Amino acid sequence: xxxxxxxxxxxxxxxxxxxxxxxxxxxxxxxxxxxxxxxxxxxxxxxxxxxxxxxxxxxxxxxxxxxxxxxxxxxxxxxxxxxxxxxxxxxxxxxxxxxxxxxxxxxxxxxxxxxxxxxxxxxxxxxxxxxxxxxxxxxxxxxxxxxxxxxxxxxxxxxxxxxxxxxxxxxxxxxxxxxxxxxxxxxxxxxxxxxxxxxxxxxxxxxxxxxxxxxxxxxxxxxxxxxxxxxxxxxxxxxxxxxxxxxxxxxxxxxxxxxxxxxxxxxx
Length: 268
Ligand SMILES: Cc1cc2nc3c(=O)[nH]c(=O)nc-3n(C[C@H](O)[C@H](O)[C@H](O)COP(=O)(O)O)c2cc1C
Fold this sequence. Notes:
Layout: E1 10-14, H1 20-32, E2 36-39, E3 54-60, H2 68-74, E4 84-91, H3 98-108, E5 113-120, H4 134-156, H5 168-181, E6 192-194, H6 203-207, E7 213-216, E8 219-222, H7 231-235, E9 241-243, H8 260-265
Parallel strand pairs: 1-2, 1-3, 3-4, 4-5
Antiparallel strand pairs: 6-9, 7-8
Helix pairs in contact: 1-4
């Protein structure tokens, strides 16, 4: 119960390219008990936080920091004063300084990030390769599940603690890389291309969280406001989208318990 006598309400906002963060958000919501889920891709969803007692943010780590879409979403978020805020930074083993950055971004907006959890799941960064062998993926899902259950317990207890962080060397070197590349992200879509398997089905257009893709003359075109979430290349049912030279040889990835329709309906 709420101190004023109402029902406690938790809202979790998520951003996902390939479903890892959506799966994390779902599991957190179930463990916390009946939390509501909203996509960060729809800025209008931010208003739902106005009558919440707790607000969570779940998103992937991109280039060792907070993705631009999450930073923009924060501008719309106005929970009541005193709302308990928590976050899960979903990543492939290098959370680096992401949650410290988020804490500072929130502080600048008058919000306190009381707990920030590092959740490690398979890599969706296909320019560097596929997700890895099946046994390793199973191990990652198992460990992530344990971490999420523990994190939900901390949220239920309204714990206040330092956010999870990577080692100091990572925070120094990778934060410099984040700052250097951040402004280039929207145009990194120049390296996407389609091979002859493309049948213009339009799934890429639909899964893009920012409407960056249009189908023109039977092929997708990327319009240089890319978030690099890689949903387009990873969800293409024909595996017809490529990035740079090496991806024809690499396995595609999305979380096995998340379906393409979940990402489409929740893209905003
Ligand atoms: C552009 C890009 C950059 C990434 N950078 C990092 C990173 O710095 N550290 C890390 O551990 N994982 C990184 N990853 C991997 C993702 O954070 C990880 O696979 C995450 O689980 C994907 O979540 P999603 O399925 O919800 O999109 C990156 C992925 C992408 C697409």
